[in-house]
Amino acid sequence: MMTTTPGDVLKAIRAQSPLVQCITNYVAMNVSANVLLATGASPAMVHASEESGDFTAVVGALTINIGTLSPSWVEGMTTAINAAHTHSKPWVFDPVAHFATPYRSGVARDILSLEPTVIRGNASEILALSGRSGSGKGVDAGDAVAAAKDGARELAVRYKSIVAVTGEQDFVTDGTRAAHIEGGSPFMPQVTALGCALTCLTGAGIAAVEDPFDATVGVLAIYGAAGREAGKTADGPGSFAWKFLDALNALAPEDVSAELVGYR
Ligand SMILES: Nc1ncnc2c1ncn2[C@@H]1O[C@H](COP(=O)(O)OP(=O)(O)O)[C@@H](O)[C@H]1O
Ligand SMILES: Cc1ncsc1CCOP(=O)(O)O
Ligand SMILES: [Mg+2]
């Protein structure tokens, strides 16, 4: 049984409103900030190396996303991750399309070697990160979550991380424990940067709750529940996007745990 339920994670985020430093990408900045605010957390997009490490010292958690990379951003990321280690702050890594170019792959490897608290990616990203071949198309997944489970377990052990693989049904593991999370909506992959925003929200979870495994499972369940709710009345990706923010905001803690279908 989980010591901290997904409903507890939602309550903790709302009660503490943790400050989350999101070093994300140009596409995801606005939607990620809105997702954090709607859920009850406090986002800040601070990425310049001149200040990123100083900022990490005062946040609840840091999130790193390589969606729109450049050398100056990588410097900002590295500075922030080093500060996270110095100040014992948990951090999340989102390896967006890391297999797409040699530059991206190299940066992802370097970041991974710093042992993120949580790695969150779609099935194609996690498959490729574990050294298996997949069929990702840029930032979009082309593989099923089930295909990435073995790789996720291996990555979790190798990097001492929690690994979250998302898709139609999500999978989370720390190498020993594992959970499956349902919910969401087929509109979710049709709205850009909802995965990136989930990575930022995972930062809020690990800032608010002690156990990063329970925190990650809880955040995925919150997302799944809000996605399911918004999908009930959405007419397409456009109305889904705003209904999803409203659903995150309106979510009741007692309605979150239904998304959690397997935990051991
Ligand atoms: N077909 C689907 N049905 C329901 N939920 C989905 C589906 N595809 C993705 N999701 C949800 O969308 C969110 C983002 O996941 P995903 O699309 O895998 O990330 P990314 O945008 O990084 O590729 C997750 O909460 C996931 O559960
Ligand atoms: C379209 C795009 N291009 C570079 S980053 C990005 C956003 C990807 O967002 P997500 O991984 O959440 O689909
Ligand atoms: Mg993504």
TrEMBL record:
<keyword id="KW-0460">Magnesium</keyword>
<feature type="binding site">
    <location>
        <position position="166"/>
    </location>
    <ligand>
        <name>ATP</name>
    </ligand>
</feature>
<dbReference type="GO" id="GO:0009228">
    <property type="term" value="P:thiamine biosynthetic process"/>
</dbReference>
<dbReference type="GO" id="GO:0009229">
    <property type="term" value="P:thiamine diphosphate biosynthetic process"/>
</dbReference>
<dbReference type="Pfam" id="PF02110">
    <property type="entry name" value="HK"/>
</dbReference>
<protein>
    <recommendedName>
        <fullName>Hydroxyethylthiazole kinase</fullName>
        <ecNumber>2.7.1.50</ecNumber>
    </recommendedName>
</protein>
<dbReference type="InterPro" id="IPR000417">
    <property type="entry name" value="Hyethyz_kinase"/>
</dbReference>
<dbReference type="InterPro" id="IPR029056">
    <property type="entry name" value="Ribokinase-like"/>
</dbReference>
<dbReference type="GO" id="GO:0000287">
    <property type="term" value="F:magnesium ion binding"/>
</dbReference>
<feature type="binding site">
    <location>
        <position position="45"/>
    </location>
    <ligand>
        <name>substrate</name>
    </ligand>
</feature>
<keyword id="KW-0784">Thiamine biosynthesis</keyword>
<keyword id="KW-0547">Nucleotide-binding</keyword>
<comment type="pathway">
    <text>Cofactor biosynthesis; thiamine diphosphate biosynthesis; 4-methyl-5-(2-phosphoethyl)-thiazole from 5-(2-hydroxyethyl)-4-methylthiazole: step 1/1.</text>
</comment>
<comment type="function">
    <text>Catalyzes the phosphorylation of the hydroxyl group of 4-methyl-5-beta-hydroxyethylthiazole (THZ).</text>
</comment>
<keyword id="KW-0418">Kinase</keyword>
<feature type="binding site">
    <location>
        <position position="120"/>
    </location>
    <ligand>
        <name>ATP</name>
    </ligand>
</feature>
<keyword id="KW-0808">Transferase</keyword>
<dbReference type="GO" id="GO:0005524">
    <property type="term" value="F:ATP binding"/>
</dbReference>
<dbReference type="GO" id="GO:0004417">
    <property type="term" value="F:hydroxyethylthiazole kinase activity"/>
</dbReference>
<comment type="similarity">
    <text>Belongs to the Thz kinase family.</text>
</comment>
<keyword id="KW-0479">Metal-binding</keyword>
<keyword id="KW-0067">ATP-binding</keyword>
<feature type="binding site">
    <location>
        <position position="193"/>
    </location>
    <ligand>
        <name>substrate</name>
    </ligand>
</feature>
